[in-house]
Each structure stands twice: as structure tokens, then as C-alpha cells.
From TrEMBL:
Enzyme class: isomerase
Stated name of the protein: chorismate mutase
InterPro entries registered for this protein in UniProt: Chorismate_II_sf, Chorismate_mutase-related, CM_bact, CM_dom_sf, CM_II_prokaryot
Listed Gene3D superfamilies: Chorismate mutase (1.20.59.10)
A Pfam family that the UniProt record links to this protein: CM_2
Listed SMART domains: CM_2 (SM00830)
Length: 108
């Protein structure tokens, strides 16, 4: 019977972890949606004023900042950088799209 109790406890604990993971995933989706809402506004602002879609200096600063934050949070900085690079590429793609829709150049 003790094996059954232990297995039941493990299943209960697993269900609790999974519920937390599900909540975190939902929060991440909502945070990303808000981030992209803001970056879309930045893209419109850039396109309206003829600014380039990409800002390599800011991107470098953000990667350095995120790597530092990742280390402080005990998260693999390489993973954090890969994640941010993916997000940055997507933001730039959106900014290029916005610029094209506004008749601006894709250079920069």
C-alpha cells in the first residue's frame, strides 16, 4: 500500500507542477503579446519618421542586458540570447513590413 501512496503523492505533485507550468505558459503568451503590441507601435513610429527598422546598437545593448539578467536569475545566458535574437528577428520583420506598407525603404 505504501507504493500506492507514494505513487499517488507523485501524481498529485506532478499535477501541481504542470498546473504551474500551464499558468507560466499563459503568462508568457500574454507578455509576448503585450511586447509585440509595443514593438508594433515602435515600428509605426519608425516608419512614419523614416527611421530604419533595425537598430543594431540597441540590439547589442539588449542582448548584453538580457545575458546579465539571465545570469542573475540562474538561467542559461546562451538560451536567453537565442530567445531574444528570435524575438528581435521577428520584431525587425514586423518593422520591415510596416515600413513597406508605409512606402519606406527596408534599409538600415
Amino acid at each position: 500500500m505504501s507504493d500506492d501512496v507514494t505513487m499517488d503523492d507523485a501524481r498529485t505533485q506532478l499535477a501541481g507542477y504542470r498546473a504551474s507550468i500551464d499558468n507560466i505558459d499563459a503568462a508568457l503568451v500574454h507578455m509576448l503579446a503585450e511586447r509585440f503590441r509595443c514593438t508594433k507601435a515602435v515600428g509605426v513610429l519608425k516608419a512614419t519618421h523614416g527611421l530604419p527598422p533595425a537598430d543594431p546598437k540597441r540590439e547589442t545593448e539588449q542582448i548584453e542586458r538580457l545575458r546579465r539578467l539571465a545570469k542573475e536569475a540562474h538561467l542559461d545566458p546562451d538560451f536567453a540570447e537565442k530567445f531574444l535574437n528570435f524575438v528581435i528577428r521577428e520584431v525587425i520583420r514586423h518593422h520591415e513590413q510596416i515600413a513597406a506598407e508605409n512606402g519606406a525603404s527596408k534599409t538600415g
